[in-house]
């Protein structure tokens, strides 16, 4: 039996818009078959009978992964700690600004849960407040590098030719500069490190990795049949880039951004430890570790506790990135 179609023709613009919307959905299902456009791919079904996207399937898979649940809980606690440190320091009668030099290097006790550092400041309160700077630097640097590197990678992969060559060669120059060494030189030029200069130094040097990931994903996606069909139907470059290619090339960038976030927090701590990052009176885990290193044999607690929190934070973000990577890659399920 032939299909019954409504009588009356549609105007050309409506026909073209509907055709382009059917060429490539925002995501590709995990049951995708190679060489078959997304519009013809078999789709999994949700409970309401609607086709499930890659992101829906990934979220369904993530909720059942202990690695994701554990890392998400740790990150949630750390974020709350960074935004509302008073909720955690309320159990302690001292704040980060209260220092009693006469009680320097006092070991942990009921009054000072983590003891006191070399200046007689409460280590517990400083450790809690140190989460704010570290997470702020990591999250902001991650967002800046993902947006900047991702946009350049999208342009380079889609345009090809001279644009790709120029951007790729520029990226290789930045790749040749080690992150910590390059950031150290930039911060020395500024003269005094603070939250904003540390974020700037890391962002300037860390975007090339996101660029390469996005560029490779775009080159793979732009040769797919659904992109060619959209181009044949008259879609413009902007529509193809942001409607068809970007959603299908975004997953690897999200994964690498989450993994890099932990690395940025560790890099900030390293720069503060070397004396060119966060400076007093700001509070940072790296700065606390640097202040406690010379008297470690006399008092171990000012160094151990911020080191533990730093390690847990970096590990949590790396674990989250690994879980998201496994969920977004059908081959790893």
From TrEMBL:
The chain crosses the membrane at residues 67-88, 133-158, 170-190, 196-214, 249-274, 303-324. It is a multi-pass membrane protein. One of its GO terms (cellular component) is plasma membrane. Belongs to the binding-protein-dependent transport system permease family. GO terms for biological process: transmembrane transport. It is found in: Cell membrane. Gene3D superfamilies: MetI-like. Residues 131-321 form the ABC transmembrane type-1 domain. This is Peptide ABC transporter permease. It comes from the Bacteria.
């Amino acid at each position: 039996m032939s299909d019954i179609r409504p009588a009356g023709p549609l105007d050309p613009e409506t026909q073209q818009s509907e055709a382009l919307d059917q060429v490539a959905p925002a995501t590709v299902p995990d049951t995708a078959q190679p060489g078959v456009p997304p519009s013809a791919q078999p789709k999994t079904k949700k409970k309401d009978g609607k086709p499930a996207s890659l992101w829906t399937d990934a979220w369904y898979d993530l909720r059942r992964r202990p690695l994701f649940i554990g890392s998400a809980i740790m990150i949630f606690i750390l974020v709350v700690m960074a935004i509302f440190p008073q909720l955690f320091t309320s159990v302690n009668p001292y704040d980060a600004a209260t220092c009693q030099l006469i009680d320097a290097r006092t070991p942990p006790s009921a009054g000072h849960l983590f003891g006191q550092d070399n200046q007689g400041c409460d280590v517990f309160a400083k450790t809690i407040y140190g989460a704010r700077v570290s997470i702020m630097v990591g999250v902001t640097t991650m967002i800046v590098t993902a947006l900047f590197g991702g946009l350049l990678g999208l342009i380079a992969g889609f345009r090809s030719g001279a644009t790709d060559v120029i951007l790729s060669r520029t990226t290789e120059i930045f790749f040749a500069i080690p992150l910590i060494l390059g950031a150290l030189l930039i911060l020395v030029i500024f003269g005094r490190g603070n939250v904003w200069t540390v974020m700037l130094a890391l962002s300037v040097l860390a975007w090339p990795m996101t660029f390469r990931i996005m560029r490779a994903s775009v080159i793979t996606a732009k040769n797919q049949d659904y992109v060619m069909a959209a181009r044949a139907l008259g879609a413009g470059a902007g529509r193809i880039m942001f409607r068809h290619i970007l959603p299908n090339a975004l997953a690897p960038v999200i994964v690498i951004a989450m993994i890099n976030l932990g690395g940025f927090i560790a890099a900030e701590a390293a720069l503060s430890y070397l004396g060119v990052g966060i400076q007093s009176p700001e509070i940072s885990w790296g700065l606390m570790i640097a202040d406690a290193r010379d008297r470690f044999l006399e008092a171990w607690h000012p160094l151990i506790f911020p080191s533990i929190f730093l390690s847990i934070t970096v590990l949590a973000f790396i674990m989250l990135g690994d879980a998201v990577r496994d969920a977004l890659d059908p081959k790893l399920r």
